[in-house]
Amino acid sequence: MGRGLGLLLLWQALGLLAAPARAEAAEEVRVEVLHVPEQCSTRSKKGDLLNAHYDGYLASDGSRFYCSRTQNEGHPKWFVLGVGQVIKGLDIAMMNMCPGEKRKVTIPPSLAYGQQGYAQGKIPPNATLIFEIELYAVNKGPRSVEAFNQIDKDSDKKLSQLEISQYLKEEFARDGKKRHPSVHDEILADIFKKNDHDGDGFISAKEYNVYQHDEL
């Protein structure tokens, strides 16, 4: 995993890159299953951490506006499903997928970029989008009760800088890539800047928890 992807995963895992919420709509996502592996012991659900490649096309002319294989040194993208880190239509389209499954999905404008479009991504207003998706991995989401308790070493229902620092060191060690010490400090500072809402030097269970159904 390259440095860029590693940082992206850690930032996404702590909810720092969530996209703006979008309004629900009556239109639906159309899903065409292209391939399902023979063995499927795990299916994706809200809150899972997914690893996938996907290409995006404009339905109007078939032109490709996005290819994950051309970013992050070709590594698949990591994101948490169902919390707004991707457009609403992809959150819907990638539910109940198996690792190794491939899908072609059609997403209406109301579940993509709507009337405003996305000029930076070369997506015009009111564009219907088509994505070809290949899912590689389904992991337990990082904002679960279990994940919080794993970081919360002293079980006091709040995360200290020392606890999160240790968590980051363990994640770096598991990744196996050498990083400058400043990378650790940068991520730690950013985590507290964006999650310690009351400024008390701790991230409480409430501040950490992005899933309303989780109880801590």
From TrEMBL:
Q: Which domain of life is it from?
A: Eukaryota
Q: Which Gene3D superfamilies match?
A: 3.10.50.40, EF-hand (1.10.238.10)
Q: Does the keyword Metal-binding apply?
A: yes
Does the record's keyword annotation contain Transcription regulation?
A: no
User: What GO molecular function terms would the record report?
Assistant: isomerase activity
Cross-referenced Pfam families: EF-hand_7 (PF13499), FKBP_C (PF00254)
Q: Which UniProt keywords apply?
A: Calcium, Endoplasmic reticulum, Glycoprotein, Isomerase, Metal-binding, Repeat, Rotamase, Signal
All copies of the EF-hand domain together span: 139-174, 183-216
Q: Which residues form the PPIase FKBP-type domain?
A: 47-139
Q: What is its EC number?
A: 5.2.1.8
Reactions accelerated catalytically: [protein]-peptidylproline (omega=180) = [protein]-peptidylproline (omega=0)
Instruction: Please list which residues make up the signal peptide.
Output: 1-25
Q: Which InterPro entries match?
A: EF-hand-dom_pair (IPR011992), EF_Hand_1_Ca_BS (IPR018247), EF_hand_dom (IPR002048), PPIase_dom_sf (IPR046357), PPIase_FKBP (IPR052273), PPIase_FKBP_dom (IPR001179)
Q: What class of enzyme is it?
A: isomerase
Q: State the protein's name.
A: peptidylprolyl isomerase
Q: Which organism is it from?
A: Apteryx mantelli (North Island brown kiwi)
Q: What is the lineage of its organism?
A: Eukaryota, Metazoa, Chordata, Craniata, Vertebrata
